[in-house]
Predict the 3D structure of the following.
Amino acid sequence: MVSRVIPVEPFDLVIFGGTGDLARRKILPGLYRRFQAGQMTPDSRIIGAARADLDDNGFRALVAEAIAEFVPAERQDKAVLGEFLKQLHYVAIDAKGEGGWPQLKALMRSGVVQAFYFSVAPALFGDLAERLRAHKIAGKNDRIVVEKPFGRDLATARELNATLARHFDESQIYRIDHYLGKETVQNLMAVRFANILFEPLWKAEYIDHVQITVAETVGVDGRGAYYDTSGAMRDMVQNHLMQLLCLIAMEPPYHFDPNAVRDEKLKVIRALDAVQPQDIVRGQYLAGDGQGGYLEHSENPASRTESYIALKCHISNWRWKGTPFYLRTGKRLRARTSEIAITFKEPPHSIFDDAEGWRENVLVIRLQPNEGMNLMMMIKEPGPGGMRLTQVPLDMSFADALGEAHQETPDAYERLIMDVIRGNQTLFMRGDEVEAAWAWADPIITGWESRGDKPQAYDAGSSGPEDALMLMHRDGRRWRDIR
Ligand code: BG6
């Protein structure tokens, strides 16, 4: 099976913050790979725009270095790189002043798709949006792309939305949550809505509970200053885990269409109950394996910021009333693994005497690594020992199932940037969705801030704090192992 690459229309993509970390690690290597795949055609251009005093060649040298560093060696190709670099340009720009804007305007072409990537601090979004309009660089068909963090609470998210709305229509704004660009996250929708198999069982009547885990082995090393203003709740739960929860819990949209999908996600977020303090566990990693603990990385020896969070939440609607969703995410844990596990209920009546051998059916969707699905099923234990039951996995790795042409999945950013050019907002967050997610997260955060709660210490390389285990034990359930 060979994947189809459909070239996108010619475009001019301006990357504000084009010399920054995200541009070097993700955006530019991603564009190089789309160029290499033939999706970005040679009549498209990438224009770096940042404070640094560079010219086109200086920017090209910086991009060549980034590609050497962040694109896997087997994907590096000198000839392709040479062609790719020819499509790069640079303008030194002053986001808060007028410097560089006339030059940028002179560079832009009409008759091609125009997109502006704000890979800068959110404090600059307003300045950029205003100047793009004032200098008549961006028109009503052009697109802007903004990164997370999109606000740090409901009030700041509203302010950002209002600032952008003064200059751009919602249909022009692409808010990135890179989890939505991951192949396997999109696969959640395919699994649910392209198969009849699961849908009849996809409800509280048959599902005991859902576990969503995003575990990382990395710490906050080097990002301590940012992380200390954020914490796992703002950095991971309000956005990435919330999106995963929405894709599992949403009603089938009438069509795979941006607003239809986002309307359904929004309904889920709005149906979330307030989370009770006893249903949240926060943790902070200790030093271990020769690496510093959170407090050393954060540079604030008294920091109460959490690097781990586990919580139980409920969705109050007809489909989910009574089925808890357990979410957890953390840094410096035992393994890097992201998965969603759906545990089904017992059959209503057992015809077998072997009650001991019975285990629940569990559908596990592995998001990373080794993307795939695993359905734990009951079968008869082989042998003449009577009707004994045993559980076996129906295990599928997407890589094995799809064959060699699909061994290498594109990075989330590759997919998302191409969607911006195609003008498809399905995998981007709408303003009301972000606000609803903050409206849910805010009371949780203000609750522990006002109580002065301290996160519980946990060992680096462990599965998280002890209390997180208790969160499930109390309900007669247990977390799946992190491995
Ligand atoms: C980012 C967070 O959005 O996602 C990081 O800011 C986190 O703290 C990262 O490490 C995880 O993304 P991925 O793609 O590595 O799972």
